[in-house]
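Write out the bound-state structure for 4'-phosphopantetheine.
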Amino acid sequence: MKKIVAIYPGSFDPPTNGHLDLIERGSKIFDQLVVAILRNPEKAPLFTLPERVRMLELMTSDFNNVHVDTFDGLTVDYAAKVKAEAILRGIRAISDYEYELQMALMNRKLHPNLETVFMMPAEQYSYLSSRLVREVAQLGGSVKDLVPEAVEQRLKEKLDPAVKLQSTREPKSRKRG
Ligand code: PNS
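---
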C-alpha cells in the first residue's frame, strides 16, 4: 500500500510543546513524518542546528514514524527530495492564517502536487511560540509546561552558564552490579 510522507518544516528555535503536540497529531495521520529544521544562514539562532536536532530527536524518540532532518533552500525542493506529498504546518490563531496562506499558495505555485495540511495544536498552546519562549527564558521567567523538560534544561544551560557548570560537575550515578 502507498505510504504518505509529510514534512513538518520550521525553525524550532527552540522546539516547544506546541510543536510536539503537532508532531503527535501529524504522526497519526501520515505514514512518515519528517521534522525538517531550516538551516537559515540569515538568522542568528539561539540554538545551533545540532542542538535543535538533538532536542527534537529526544522529544520524538517515542514515535517510530517520525524522524528529524535539516534542510536549506526551498521547502518544496526538500519535500521532493524526500518524496513527501504534504507539508504539515500548525495554525494557532487567525493571526497565523495570513502568513501561512501566503506560504501555502506560494509553495503550491512552485510545486502544484504538494499539499499543505494545517492542523491546530491543543488550545493550551494557542499562544505559544518559540520567540516568546526565548524571550521569557532570556528575561528569567519560567517556561515550565511550555517546552519539554530537556529543552527547559538546555535553555537554562544556554542562558545561565553557572547551570551548565553545575550539571557538568554533578557526579554521574554509578550503575550497580
Ligand atoms: O518555524 P518557522 O520559522 O515559521 O518556519 C518557516 C519555514 C521554515 C517553514 C519557511 O521560512 C520556509 O519554508 N523556508 C524555506 C525557504 C522557502 O521555501 N521559502 C518559500 C516559502 S513560501
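---
The chain is about 45% helix and 15% strand.
The beta strands are 5-10, 32-38, 66-71, 86-90, 115-119.
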